[in-house]
Amino acid sequence: MRTSNVNQPAAKTFSRKARITGAVLLSSFCLVGMTSCEDEDDDPILTTYNQQDRNFAIATSQSLNAQLDFGQLALDNGEDDSVLEYGTMLVSETTESKTELEGIVNGTDVDISDEVSDAMQAKYDELAALSGEDFDMAFIDFQLETLDNAMSIYENQNDNGENNTLKAFSDKTLGKVKDHREDARLVKIELEAEGI
């Protein structure tokens, strides 16, 4: 007697579906495995510092210290309201940046400076001998010059620094420096309009 299996086509279909499902699952596992591989080179660098980072910490701390001194000098020797307002803003925002930098390097082997460069000290002494309108214009002209120079410090860190936290600080502070430069430009326009 001959028996026929009526379900034979269904069995072949099931077997084929099982193989396809297995292949899809295997492919999925392979893809998940490949995408979840960690490439340590892509991890953000948060705890190591290259020589550029160390140089930046010293240079930017000296620059911030100088800007604090110059802002206070503007409040002491300035006459025009726009210079006094600029000096107030400079002290306030530079204090925030300095505090942030100190927090970033606290507990690390990265040094920052509590001083200003010799060139900045010489310029401070020169400006401190002036007062009133003479001070106002000389101060704003100097701010435009020094902020241009400061931008290069931050741009260099953004391009060549290794530590991502310092690079983020640099990028944020570069934005402030650009804003300060624009504010100084507007103060100069106002002083010129007043005939100073």
UniProtKB/TrEMBL annotation:
Top-level division of the source organism's lineage: Bacteria
Domain DUF4142 span(s) in chain numbering: 51-185
InterPro entries, per the entry: DUF4142, Ferritin-like
UniProt cross-references to Pfam families, sorted A to Z: DUF4142
PANTHER family to which the protein is assigned, alphabetical: BLR2558 PROTEIN (PTHR38593)
Name the record gives this protein: DUF4142 domain-containing protein
Organism: Algoriphagus locisalis
